[in-house]
Amino acid sequence: MSRTSFDWTTGYPSRRLPVFGRNIVSTSHPLAAQAGLRMLAQGGNAIDAAIAAAAAMTIVEPCSNGLGSDAFAIVWDGSTLHGLNASGCAPAAWTPEYFRARHGADAKAPPKRGWDSVTVPGAVSAWAALSAKFGKLPFEELLQPAIDIAERGYAVPVVVQQKWGWAAELPELTTQPGFAEVFLPHGRAPQVGELFRLPGAARTLRLIAQTRGEAFYRGEIAAAAEAHARAHGGAMRASDFAAYAPRWVEPIAQDYLGHRLHEIPPNGQGIAALIALGILKQFDLQGLAPDSTAAQHLQIEAMKLAFADVYRYVAEPASMEVTPAQMLDAGYLAQRATLIDPKRAQDFGAGNPVKGGTIYLTAADERGMMVSFIQSNYMGFGSGVVVPEYGLSLQNRGHGFTLDAKSPNLVAPGKRPFHTIIPAFLTKDGAPQMSFGVMGGNMQPQGHLQTLVRMLAFGQQPQAACDAPRWRFNQGRSINVEPEMPAATVQGLRDLGHQVENFQDSYQDFGAGQFIWRLGDPAVEGYVAASDPRRDGLAAAF
Fold this sequence. Notes:
The protein is α+β, with helices and mostly antiparallel strands. Helices cover about 35% and strands about 20% of the residues.
């Protein structure tokens, strides 16, 4: 039977409306949202839903994440917040000397692709840890929707196909071992609406389900990863997998307009959003129009100051010269705010705070549990390395290290690199208000800042804040803006000295978010959710 030949590139403007319900799952792919909702309908809780959705996402959006991803989560269990850092560690063989011997004496960082960019994957450990601590349903049941999708296949959606097609043109990906065999089965990326299966991933998911992840870290899958690495010159070993464990951490926070934003502490960049909010507290944003040049300029400049410190100081906590508390000190941030000139754009350096291709999803249930969860390969398909028989596509987070001996992010055995993926959570008066996140490289804290300011300073509802045009800071005075941003605002930013550059890839450039806002008693009023139109996503509820 021939496939219908639609033109998938044309269409009329459309908008999404907020979704209301007592049980909600919001993800960037409808099948994953339904997988999570299925767990809630079977009596599971928000954790069960998030795990089912996350597992499904590894299958339906492989251009952003996979079974070899890393992950982070923030959980409201009904009474308190819990943070989980499931970012992977460097193999035991990784040293600066290792990389210089393999990639040249002038190498600055581990490579972008290949086995020498792969740290131990943490996502599967996150699923197992979250289930063990908070889940209701048997772990094996949570992965069944993903197994079904991998075995039976799914029709590739529009935005995922665009990203997949772009990746298929990159030799740095397509020449990696296993990539073309798994992700280019006909010598090309799948077309929109074309059926795609991942039987190897289904096999891996079954092993993970049956062993609560043990087969992944201390069994058959780890052994297969080592064999593949050895065959292709990589240093990863099964012992590196076996030595890995995720970490429960205390979220860090910043108050803003009667609410408190919570982020995972370093080695992630979530602290950038907290710094920027702390700086913006020194200005009366509420007295400005939300889409005005003045409002956007202040946010851009605050974000620049935040990134200047984050890129200078953030790493694995044990290697940092300063603490997160020092970086978030109110007096220090007030002093940093004085550097902002409302009349011109600037290029900021780091201060001195010392005294003397990612998926995001969220789920909430009527009993009050809320989960903010993110997992990613990094740079789309990650390292490009795939262990074919297991459908195991691996992240390239090792590229986040440096070989600069003066940097706190210097590569070392067992160390975690600087990380971009960050879940977020908002509370008010100690009670949960919103679980949310915005995926997309260094756009993530920028997306957290912009959407939160729209909701808290300007009263925009979550879907409107999600839909609104965004800017993206790059470096120096360079920014990108979405074409929907008012022309007068864009010209105003140029007049202030911002270098507004053209953009190419809206999938990555401006991020994509999911939001669940608590309306009151979860069992009575429930929640309202938003899902970003920049992806194929869905907020599903009952």
